[in-house]
Design goal:
The complex is a heterodimer.
Chain A (H helix, E strand, L loop, with lengths): L12 H5 L8 H28 L5 H9 L1 H29 L3 H30 L3
Helix pairs in contact in A: 2-4, 3-5, 4-5
Chain B lengths: L23 H32 L1 H12 L1 H28 L6 H29 L1
Amino acid sequence: MAANQPDTGYRTALGRVRGLGSAKAGAEHWLSYRLLSAAYVPLTIWFVVSAIRLIGADHPTFTAWLAQPVNAVLMLVTVGVTFHHAAYGMIEVYEDYIHAKGPRLLAVAATKGACLLLALACGFAILKIALGA
Amino acid sequence: MTDTPAAARQRPLSPHLQVYRLPLPPLTSITHRITGIGLTVGTLLWAWWIIAAAAGPDAFEAAQGFIGSWFGMILMFGWTWALWYHLLNGMRHLMWDAGRGLDLGTTYRTGYLVIGGSIGLTVITWIAVFAAM
């Protein structure tokens, strides 16, 4: 059974049999965005509590905090989820309000590119501090 | 038949945004989008703060100095409320996506809960901020 079973991702067997939902990667995109959003809730609370504790921190205090493995990993995850969430959230807004195909494509591409660049820059900065380079 | 030109006839108008008082569900919906866009803009300052920490003490002091300025504090206050609003209303959307709480009574109750909760969490956050300063 498993050998010739098509890869259905997150779609339920019933939905597939009935031919409901997206023909492409829509179901997976929809659900993964929501699962990431749910994971974002505890990450946000952790970040806000951390940020309050870091108020007025000088550079050595802040880098020492970020160099701790737990904080470095959680910050990396928070950066990744934040820019993913921001990019796809903005794209949903563009898809609703920008009707001309060219400008919409440009806005989507620019947002994806900017978010990827910012996420990589932040990730590199965190690693640089955490690894003490 | 009396023939009046189409334009001269007093046709009933559909609700127009400038004269139409938005009910709570669309009001919380558009606020979710606006706070999401605002928070996306806020990621630029967030990225500056992280990258500045990796760049060195002077760059970090400059970023901290901007955040601690009166203009920075006003922005941070706005982003605090936007973050709590978007987080709480996001959980409301996740509940709806799970197929729960879609009836009118629950929608209004959770809507008021999100507005009240976001204001309450903002006040609590800033009490903690001033206590930590």
